[in-house]
Amino acid sequence: MRDGKHIAIDRPCKMGLRNIIKKGESTLAKKSRVIKDFNERLHTLLDDMRETMLEAKGLGLAAPQVGVLRRAVLVVDTTEEEDRIIELINPEIIESEGLQEGPEGCLSVPDVWGIVKRPMNVKVRAQDRYGKEFEIEAEGLTARAFCHEIDHLNGTLFTDICERILTPEEVEELFFSEENDEENDQADTETEKV
Ligand SMILES: [Zn+2]
């Protein structure tokens, strides 16, 4: 997912960059398969996805976006002091609450932004790269990113479910207005703008 915000995470090298496939390719419309082997191959995939997401300045990335139909996603949690990347294998939303309506973009749908309704809070159950199960709660922008990435695993793009696509003028306002820069850190305030 994209939100236009600068992601401040060090990118050690560019060894594992993969090609991000774009809307129109059939892979993005397919359902991804459950991951059962938590092996070196999965770890390489996750490492490559991390590189690829940071290079593209994304806020999240799902394995099908790099052409791998497996249930693995990355989400950048921007709520802590330092951004951190959460790896989720076989993620499932087990609880959701509230509603947010705001702009959303996608690395697989360049230059298009749409208004998408998402829950304000979600609880997700997933496994880490070693197969250990965990649960994680998120709100606001991070909750939005979880929903967006998990949708990818089911072959759904934000353009399939958005209320409407933003006009070029609205996109410009979203990213270039001074006012927005101050508000960019707060997903709920950002949501109110639209
Ligand atoms: Zn996306």
Structure description:
The chain is of the alpha+beta class. The chain has one domain (26-193): Peptide deformylase (Peptide Deformylase, Alpha-Beta Complex). Helices cover 29% and strands 29% of the residues. It has helices at residues 40-55, 140-153, 158-161, 168-176, 178-183, 187-193, and strands at 60-62, 72-77, 84-97, 100-106, 109-118, 121-127, 133-139, 164-165. A hairpin with a 6-residue loop joins β2 and β3. The chain is globular, with a radius of gyration of 16 Å. 35% of the residues are buried. Bound molecules: zinc ion. Zinc ion (ZN) binds at residues 1, 106-108, 148, 152.
What is the overall number of helices? Answer: 6
Structural class: alpha+beta
Helix content: 25-40%
Elements, N to C (H/E): HEEEEEEEHHEHHH
User: In the CATH scheme, what's the topology name?
Assistant: Peptide Deformylase
Number of separate strands: 8
Corresponding CATH architecture: Alpha-Beta Complex
Shape: globular
Q: What is the CATH class designation? A: Alpha Beta
CATH superfamily: Peptide deformylase
Low-confidence stretches: 186-194
User: What percent strand?
Assistant: 25-35%
Largest sheet: 5 strands, antiparallel
How much is the radius of gyration in Å?
Answer: 16 Å
Average residue-wise pLDDT? 89
Strand order of the largest sheet: 1-2-3-6-7
In whole angstroms, how far apart are the ends? Answer: 18 Å
As for the number of domains, it is 1
